[in-house]
Write a structure and sequence with these properties.
mainly alpha; three-stranded antiparallel beta sheet; membrane
């Protein structure tokens, strides 16, 4: 009997580099929490400041609704198609917040040494907070921008300030962050998301 046919030379089912025991012995990176808490708070605070430019941009970009004064007591009558601007105001805010969320998701991903769920959640909460503050500030700034200084005359056409009538639009910002960050994490494909710079 030749040496190659003996049982000592048969390939082992557990000796290879891709065997099950070897795979189970590999150590996977753990989620870093304590070291990422302070950067997460910084991200949250910085993103809340973005509510000011977001609110200002919306208060100037959102279209006002034009109405006609139909009675001497100031009763307003709707003009044809002008009521559609109520949806336009919501859509403009939603697209601004979605764009902000996508940009924030990419920028936070570039913080390579802080990649992970802690900073990601801080980015999601920060964009949601910025959106809520921008919603309140933007409506106030729009009201002051389109304020009527004197009582309008009968038959005059005036512009009503843009308004936001649904809080559901605030979901677009966190959605943008989640989409951008998830796509980049999927494309990266590393267990530690590339935190190690080596």
């Amino acid at each position: 009997m030749s040496e190659s046919s003996g049982p000592a030379h048969r390939p082992s089912a557990v000796a290879g580099p891709w065997s099950v025991p070897v795979l189970f012995r590999e150590r996977r990176p753990r989620v870093v929490v304590k070291a990422d808490l302070l950067p997460a708070v910084s991200v949250l605070g910085t993103l809340s400041l973005l509510s000011f430019p977001l609110a200002f941009a919306w208060s100037r970009l959102a279209p006002p609704e034009r109405v006609r004064i139909v009675a001497a007591d100031g009763t307003q009558g709707a003009l044809e198609l002008e009521s559609w601007h109520r949806f336009d105001d919501l859509a403009v805010f939603g697209f601004l917040l979605l764009g902000l969320g996508i940009v924030v998701g990419v920028v936070v991903w570039l913080l390579r040494e802080r990649r992970g769920p802690v900073v990601f959640l801080a980015a999601v909460l920060g964009v949601a907070l910025a959106g809520a503050l921008a919603m309140l500030l933007g409506v106030g700034w729009a009201n002051s921008h389109y304020a009527v200084s004197s009582p309008p005359a009968l038959g005059a056409v005036i512009e009503l300030a843009p308004r936001l009538e649904s809080w559901w639009v605030l979901l677009t910002g966190p959605l943008g962050v989640s989409i951008a960050y998830s796509l980049l994490a999927t494309w990266n494909g590393r267990d530690d998301l590339g935190r190690r710079l080596g």
